[in-house]
Fold each of these.
Amino acid sequence: MHTIQAGTVELSYADFGEGLPVLCVHGFPLDHSMWQGQYTSSMPGVRWIVPDLRGFGASQVSSGLVTMAQYADDLAALLDAMGVDGPVVYCGLSMGGYVGWEMADRHRQRLAAMIFCDTRAASDTREMARGRQLLADRVLADGPEPLVGSMLSRLFHESAIASQSGIVKSTKRVMETTSRQGIAAALQGMAQRRDSRTLAATLHLPVLLLCGVDDGITPLTEMEELARTMPQATLVPIPDAAHMAPLENPQAVNRAIEEFLRRI
Ligand code: MLT
């Protein structure tokens, strides 16, 4: 892992391979390692740039709420600091997808194409936003424990949970060691995020949508609906996967990404 000053924050990131830069942005409350099935795959002609967002993994934690726009600005600053001037392919899972909409809005000139995994364009309902605020307060008081219990079983396919597979154990470790401030900042930022469905419907970039067929957090039906509204989107359902499709079924995800990159 490398660290670099990216605008107002020090970010940690992995950098593998050579070729077209693919910027992979993790979900909540995770870190770069959820993309291990991609950056260890040695896909020809691809450079994987895989950061930990502000407040996650080994990146600097800042105080107060962090908006999806702030994460996107951090990523643009990261590319600047790394000297990556040409367009990149943005690839985000779930919260990484929410950041992707802001990237498309604020830094469109940096993007060649986009990949959205297990995510949505709609904002939170009032009830969801209230739940996030309560959870943020609880995590600040008690640490990540309450979140780990409630989230882990929703991230993975039930067979992975039942067998306590390596990916479940390592994801649990990541969640348990994430800073409580980083978690609370993201929960509050997600609660405030705007509705990006209009932006999605006018996004004239090649887009690949991926979704685990058993995803209960961002269901396949919702991503199918999103695909119908987007001008240049292709949806590929990922079998044997729930919310963490790139980690649960890296072969199918990598096949879809490789084919997409060949076409753009
Ligand atoms: C994620 O995986 O990033 C989260 O499930 C996103 C969310 O809580 O909306």
Amino acid sequence: MNESDSRSLVEEASRVLRENDLGGWTKPAPGLYPHQWNWDSCFIAIGLARIDPERAATELRSLLRGQWRNGMVPQIVFDPKEKGYFPGPEVWQCERSPDAPTSVPTSGITQPPVLGTAVRAVFDRATAAGLRWAPEFAEEMFDRTLAYHRFFYDERCPDDDGLVVVVHPWESGLDNSPPYLDAGSRVHLAYTPKYERLDLLHVSAKNRPTNKDYDLFVYLLELMRDDDWNQKRYLAHAPLQVQDVLFNGILCRAHRDLEAVGAAIGRDTRELRDWRRQTSESINRRLWNDEDGTYWSWDRVAGTALRDDTLATFGTLYGGIADTPRCERLLRRLDDPTRFAPEDGYPVPTTALNSPRYNPENYWLGPTWIATNWLVIQGLRQYGQPDRAARLLHSTVELPKRHGFREYFNPRSGEGYGTDRFSWTAALSIDLIQSQDEVRQAT
Ligand code: 2M8
């Protein structure tokens, strides 16, 4: 992409973010997603940090309006005026928990913890720009984010080994990804929940989860709600518990980024380092399969590996978890045209091309997403693979350039699906383009 293409893509991406800006926070997209989502806002802040650090800081502060007393940062912070999304606050009923905030309605689960990484991005950009508020922002965010990380170790490590469990497919962020369909297929639904989907008013059913998937999503929500969102009580019988390699990898990376922020403001970061080591060690010990040459998430209820080939394994590059021999095996997988490298296409498909569940048009069953590519690109850079990272970056930003700021894309043709004017596609395109300029200037 030449300089003028890059410039116009950044301009158009900035326009998307302005359109979805609701004052202090950004909705993921018009129509389909009218509230504030956790990891969306983190990715949005990472992009905004490049063009408007002050607004990026506001994005994270507004997300933390929803933080629970037990430290959890929820998946959704609702806009009480907005009625067009299912399930809304009246379904979650989080007021049942004494830990839920009273000033704003939220959902009762969390999402992949990108927050620590977003805090670092905003702090670093604000510092580089000489903005006076940077240390104050870091002080405030350090404590809140540390409390979020502590939530995982206090409430979500049932084996006490640093492996965090995800209890709802929506928490994983990759809602209908094959490991969740597999683990979900073993959940016995004692009844069929009654509800009305609203997502299909905006997006064709062939691009979205099935009604059966939604039955599981809503059933699990109601089951956890019956325990008044009490984590310990629910975990004692939760029928879906996944020790997810991507989620845990993201947490390790966030620990490291928060350690860097803490160190810059003279805070004690030993606890973060210990968590990071423990989680990373457990991922290597429990989730690596040497025969298959990959990491698999673990179904803690069934006591079995979830051997569905998805991009989740590359979370160990992003999280700095794999050692050199394992990294090499993962790179072979990434380069394999039968798995993650579609010929003349747009890697990285979220589900491997040769998986029996692969579907290039459906949500997390195959399409390429900008956010997951962003994670892989960071991982490649970290593991000394600048050329691979640059190639992937190039094909990634071609997607919005050719097909618009769509939610996800066909890994072979590039066709866009889901909603349009999708905020994280815009925000991370900005980050990718500008980061490549930095790499170029440095060499
Ligand atoms: C998608 O998930 C929401 C539920 O959280 C939905 O389908 O209604 C996922 O892609 C998730 O990762 C994302 O955060 C959210 C908003 O963009 O949409």
